[in-house]
């Protein structure tokens, strides 16, 4: 995988376990990617500003500031870089905390290197790196538009800021207007791998989209009880 201009994909790996960062660095370099590492949060923020990575692998537990704070600082710089959280806690609340903070995905330690690479591929594929290759760049459903070239979403002329995963979820809904999509279909299409039945993540991201797309307006995203979700023009 490379960028549309042929340059290398840049990935920043952040973890205070040196042996782990070295293993991840080797695996990602094997993919042909340019990889930088950081062992603490403050260094990670500094490297992110200088390196401008296309994706970040970020441990939640760090010796100075935690991964959630790192993400907040990176986002404050205006970067929408996809983030894959690493966590040693196998608890749903911990995972949701990372996603709520703006992360795009997570893996729980211990994990396989193949799993990390696969998930990064999914995040990068869904990011702005490949959107410019779309044949039909603008999707329209009612007063909602999504431009796959500029990565911009508007409703009734108002710009709506979305994360990479929110964007992909909305794109999937907009490519299938008035069609009921099950949680399993959404997991398979948007996350591109078996999420182990964690359909709560779909519910979480649907709620995020509703707050951004439907807040204060006639709803476009609808729940079909027992079946899934659909998007249709406001009536």
Indicate the topology.
Blueprint: E1 10-14, H1 18-30, E2 34-38, H2 41-51, E3 55-59, H3 67-76, E4 83-87, H4 92-100, E5 105-108, H5 113-126, H6 128-131, E6 138-141, E7 144-147, E8 152-155, E9 158-160, H7 164-174, H8 183-191, H9 200-214, E10 221-224, E11 228-231
Parallel strand pairs: 1-2, 1-3, 3-4, 4-5
Antiparallel strand pairs: 6-7, 7-8, 8-9, 10-11
Protein name: Response regulator transcription factor
Pfam families: Response_reg, Trans_reg_C
InterPro entries: CheY-like_superfamily, OmpR/PhoB-type_DNA-bd, Sig_transdc_resp-reg_receiver, WalR-like, WH-like_DNA-bd_sf
Your description of this structure?
The structure is a single chain. The chain is of the alpha/beta class and 235 residues long. Helices cover 41% and strands 20% of the residues. The protein is built from 9 helices and 11 strands. It has helices spanning 18-30, 41-51, 67-76, 92-100, 113-126, 128-131, 164-174, 183-191, 200-214, and strands spanning 10-14, 34-38, 55-59, 83-87, 105-108, 138-141, 144-147, 152-155, 158-160, 221-224, 228-231. The strands form 3 sheets. It has a 5-stranded parallel beta sheet, sandwiched between helices. Strands 6-7-8-9 form a 4-stranded antiparallel beta sheet, covered by helices on one side. Helix 3 links the parallel strand 3 and strand 4 (83-87). Helix 1 (18-30) packs across helix 5 and helix 2 (41-51) runs parallel beside helix 3 (67-76). The protein starts with 9 loop residues before the first strand and ends with a strand. The model is unreliable at 129-134 (pLDDT under 50).
């Amino acid at each position: 995988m490379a960028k549309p201009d042929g340059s290398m994909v840049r990935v920043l790996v952040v973890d205070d376990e040196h042996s782990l960062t070295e293993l991840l660095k080797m695996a990602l370099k094997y993919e042909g990617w340019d990889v930088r590492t950081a062992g603490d949060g403050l260094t990670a923020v500094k490297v992110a500003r200088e390196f401008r990575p296309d994706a970040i692998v970020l441990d939640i537990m760090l010796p100075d500031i935690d991964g959630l704070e790192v993400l907040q600082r990176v986002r404050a710089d205006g970067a929408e870089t996809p983030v894959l959280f690493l966590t040693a806690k196998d608890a749903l609340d911990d995972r949701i905390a990372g996603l709520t903070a703006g992360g795009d995905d997570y893996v729980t330690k211990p994990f396989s290197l193949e799993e990390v690479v696969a998930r990064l591929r999914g995040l990068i594929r869904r990011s702005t790196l490949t959107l410019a290759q779309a044949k039909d760049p603008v999707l329209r459903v009612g007063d909602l538009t999504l431009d796959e070239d500029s990565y911009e979403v508007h409703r009734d002329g108002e710009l709506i800021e979305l994360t990479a995963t929110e964007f992909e979820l909305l794109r999937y809904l907009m490519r299938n207007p008035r069609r009921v999509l099950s949680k399993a279909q959404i997991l398979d299409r948007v996350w591109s791998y078996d999420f182990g039945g964690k359909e709560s993540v779909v519910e979480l991201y649907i709620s995020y989209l509703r707050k951004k797309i439907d807040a204060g307006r006639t709803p476009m995203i609808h729940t079909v009880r027992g079946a899934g979700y659909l998007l249709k023009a406001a009536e």
